[in-house]
Amino acid sequence: MLRPGDVLGRHKPSPCRISASDEVKAAIKQIGINKCARESGFHRANFIRKLLRDMPVKRNSYNEFVRWLEANSMILNDVVPGQ
């Protein structure tokens, strides 16, 4: 039986989920959401939108996306935030 103040479902993100760094967000904004989704193999743009909105995503998916960014000569250090 539920008591007042009980929380249904997950109220904290699981430890295997992480949020995107500012460098990754800047790279996505520079490239574009749809182009990132199309070329990275993440066919759903929702994953890319989650990264931009600072929502937690699975660690393995995030790492795979970052490897794609680095492999396609889109080095994260060269991306200047705000441009």
Structure summarized in a few sentences:
The chain has helices spanning 22-31, 33-40, 45-52, 59-71, and strands at residues 17-18, 57-58. The relative contact order is 0.20.
What would your notes on this structure say?
The chain is mainly alpha-helical and 83 residues long. The chain has one domain (17-77). It has 4 helices and 2 strands. It has a two-stranded antiparallel sheet with strand order 1-2. The longest helix is centred in the C-terminal third of the chain and has 13 residues, at 59-71. The protein is globular.
The total count of strands amounts to: 2
Number of helices: 4
Question: Please, what is the oligomeric state?
Answer: single chain
SSE sequence, one letter per element: EHHHEH
Determine the fraction of residues in helical runs and give it as a percent range.
40-55%
Tags for this model:
single chain, 83 residues, mainly alpha, two-stranded antiparallel ribbon, 4 helices
Give the SSE layout:
Elements: E1 17-18, H1 22-31, H2 33-40, H3 45-52, E2 57-58, H4 59-71
Antiparallel strand pairs: 1-2
